[in-house]
Specification:
The chain is mainly α and about 425 residues long. It is built from 19 helices and five strands.
Length: about 425
């Protein structure tokens, strides 16, 4: 491991990429601790204390790396861009123009990226306005918890400071989008994923330290061992894939013979990654946000008891079912058996024992449905383990949440593969054996 790490810094190009990535990550982490101008710092301390509890605010704060509760320049994080990317990917199935761009290669991808930026800018502007109005003049009971004291970040709520805060938060998201693209182009790994990785991992040391202060050492060791077990299981499942063999018939072009080779289509067990968890969490917390709008007591009580309480059995069941459902939904969009079968046929390939055309489509759809079920059940179990531990045990917090570890493992593995491939190109031994 240490020798492989030394090899990374022996290669000048690779060393510059790693250092450039670390430099932008450090800039991002500094920005998460710089509050926007004009806010009350005492109110920010109240917001931070409320975020330590489980609930909507804690979930939203996870993806900003603690910047949301500090109302920092990067409070919105990179999530507006991630949300815009997911929306554009889904709309690509129903909007012919987007589907046409997807089939145009690099030119079409640049157009899709540009429109994704515009949509991310609009989402960031809406979210910045909403957060400013929720916390600026007091409110946000759905985020802070029912009965919690109001947090007023902008005393008097002057419109000039409101505009300044909204523009600062929106500009922070745009700057992060630029950071992510710079990391992708000149650094190592996917820039957006690296920024999310740094956000979700940054709070782990503090959370484990708080857990050690709260519980006895034996309980702390047991929970840490359990966290390591979850980590190993996720690595095992993330690396698991079903390989569908594809053979290509021989054909003669001029005086040369092409084809006659075999390859495979890798279908990961967890094709959707962490996206079903993000979808389910966003939908699940919509009723919580509506409690700030409607004044029905029965609705507010229902949301507080069955939606916001992550230890409630009904919340656990609804959350798990939604994760499984969104996993099937996303996989159906991300992997189209009809397009895949048509592409194999055009390239002169076939799956051994399966006829090209409709039979290949049905075979791929059958394999996809079978492999999605264990992957969906696994990510649902990982996402629900913290809630189950909190419900059954006398534990106030469990640092290694399902969302955190799925993101951390996925990004770490992809980045390590990129570093490993570049080391192997230069005849160095890589990290992965």
């Amino acid at each position: 491991m240490l020798s492989s790490l030394k090899n990374v810094f022996k290669v000048t190009d690779l060393r510059n990429k790693v250092l450039f990535t670390l430099f932008l990550v450090v800039l991002y982490r500094i920005g998460t601790h710089v509050p926007v101008p004009g806010v009350d710092y005492g109110a920010i301390r109240q917001l931070q204390s409320r975020a330590e509890q489980q609930g909507t605010l804690g979930f939203l704060n996870l993806f900003s790396g603690g910047a949301l509760t500090q109302f920092a320049v990067f409070a919105l994080g990179i999530m507006p861009y991630i949300t815009a990317s997911i929306i554009v990917q889904i709309l690509g199935v129903v909007i012919p123009k987007l589907e046409e761009w997807q089939n145009q290669g690099a030119v079409g991808q640049r157009k899709i990226t540009q429109w994704t930026r515009y949509l991310a800018l609009a989402i960031a502007l809406l979210q910045a306005t909403g957060l400013t109005f929720v916390f600026g003049k007091g409110g946000g009971q759905a985020l802070l918890g029912r009965g919690a004291p109001d947090v007023i970040l902008l005393p008097g709520f002057p419109w000039t400071r409101v505009v300044l805060v909204v523009l600062t938060l929106t500009a922070g998201t745009c700057l992060l989008m630029w950071f992510g693209e710079l990391i992708t182009q000149r650094g190592i790994g996917n820039g957006m994923s690296i920024l999310i990785f740094s956000s979700v991992v940054s709070t782990l040391p503090f959370q484990y330290w708080a857990l050690l202060q709260e519980k006895k050492f034996v309980v702390f060791v047991v929970l840490v061992a359990f966290s390591i077990g979850i980590l190993v299981a996720i690595v095992f499942v993330e690396q698991g894939q079903r390989r569908i063999p594809v053979s290509f018939a021989k054909r003669v072009v001029g005086r040369r013979m092409y084809g006659g080779q075999s390859t495979y289509i890798p279908l990961k067990v967890n094709q959707a990654g962490v996206i079903p968890i993000i979808f389910a969490s966003s939908i699940l917390y919509l009723p919580a946000l509506l409690t700030n709008v409607v004044s029905w007591t029965w609705f507010q009580d229902f949301v507080n008891k069955y939606i916001l309480d992550t230890t409630n059995f009904i919340h656990i069941v609804i959350y798990g079912v939604m994760i499984v459902g969104f996993a099937y939904f996303y996989n159906a969009i991300a992997f189209d058996p009809v397009k895949q079968a048509d592409q194999i046929r055009k390239q002169g390939g076939f799956i051994p024992g399966i006829r090209p055309g409709p039979q290949t489509e049905r075979y791929l759809a059958k394999i996809l449905n079978r492999i999605t079920l264990p992957g969906a059940l696994f990510i649902a179990a990982v996402a629900l383990i913290p809630s189950i531990i909190l419900a059954l045990g006398n534990v106030q917090r469990f640092p290694l949440s399902g969302t955190t570890v799925l993101i951390a493992v996925g990004v770490a593995l992809e980045t390590m593969k990129q570093v490993d491939s570049q080391l192997m190109m230069r005849n160095y031994e890589g990290f992965l054996k």
